[in-house]
Amino acid sequence: MTANDDGSYRIVWQVPGVRKATVMAGGNVVARGGSRGEVPVRGLRVADRQWFDVVPERVRSLHLADRLLRLDGAVNFRDAGG
Prior knowledge:
- This protein is mainly β.
- 10% of the residues are buried.
- Strands 4-3-6-7 form a four-stranded antiparallel beta sheet, with no helix packed on it. The protein has a three-stranded antiparallel beta sheet with strand order 1-2-5, with no helix packed on it.
- Helix content is 0%, strand content 43%.
- Strand 6 (51-56) and strand 7 (62-65) form a beta hairpin.
């Protein structure tokens, strides 16, 4: 998963051995595809962090979050934690 500057995301998956996979964001289906695929995701509600689930048939799902740290207004990066 890659977060883009325009607020959209690019989700790429590869799940060998399955025929179908579903990509979900916030409990809503945003894409369906085969064992591999790529999809742009736009129009999600604004949140501190976006979570996605890649749900293949017959195997465990993968729970993903964007790793972008939004530090608008932080005067010093040490303000982020210990």
